[in-house]
Amino acid sequence: MKRLMWIVPAIFVLCMTAQAQDVPAWDISGGFSYLKANLNGTSFNLPGGGGALTEYVNPWFGGRLEVNGYSGTEAGKSVSAQTVTYGPVFSYRRLERVVPFGNFQIGAIHASTGYLGISESAFKFDMTGGGGLDININDRAAVRAEGDYLMTRFLDLRQDNLRFSVSLVIHFGHK
After folding, report:
1. 3-class secondary-structure state, position 14
2. pLDDT computed for residue 31 by the predictor
3. % of the chain with per-residue pLDDT over 90
4. Closest C-alpha to 105, from 81, 82, 129, 79
5. Strands (E), 20-140
């Protein structure tokens, strides 16, 4: 992890110099999301969906609120998890049709009984970081592909989960 600490300042500097596209004031997205949950080497998969609302302060920086829900069956039990996170998003707008971005968010996860072996449903802290691409269809819409690391803590153990999503993005207003 210490070796990767240079990435955050590098992304910050790169994004500060970027602006080749129109910058939306807001965007809203929704689509399919997939969670690969992990507990001490044992993992299972939960499909789901989610959405995000992003306000852009300037061409390279914004704030994103994201909500996701997952459900499935693990070891014969029906399990579900929901996440709500908020944090900064850094965008690089030098390319004509593609907007790469990075994000870091903190929030909460709610999991049902049976999720990772918990005996009762609970709210816990979560933290996510990752990035992706917005591929512009036109000035008002894009397709977003995103991958994130999702850290949670249940049963006094840290879980290192992966989350992938594909969604449709609608842009509003201009900066």
Report:
1. helix
2. 98
3. 62
4. 129
5. 26-39, 42-56, 61-74, 77-91, 98-111, 122-136
Alpha-carbon distance 57 to 127, whole Å? 22
Overall average pLDDT of the 94-109 stretch: 95
Q: Name the amino acid, one letter, at 114.
A: G
User: In terms of Cα–Cα distance, which of 47, 15, 31, 60 is closest to 141?
Assistant: 31
CA geometry: angle at 165 spanning 123 and 80, to 5°? 30
pLDDT at residue 40 tops 90: no
Ordered by where they begin, the domains of the chain are 2-172 (2.40.160.20)
In angstroms, the CA 68 to CA 20 distance is 31
What are 110-141's pLDDT values in tens digits? Answer: 988 877 777 788 899 999 999 999 999 998 99
Nearest-CA neighbor of 23 among 113, 155, 142, 106? 142
pLDDT band at 77 (very low <50, low <70, confident <90, very high): confident
The candidate with the shortest Cα–Cα distance to 93, out of 22, 28, 27, is: 22
User: What average pLDDT does the structure give for the chain?
Assistant: 87
**156, two tokens:** 């006094």
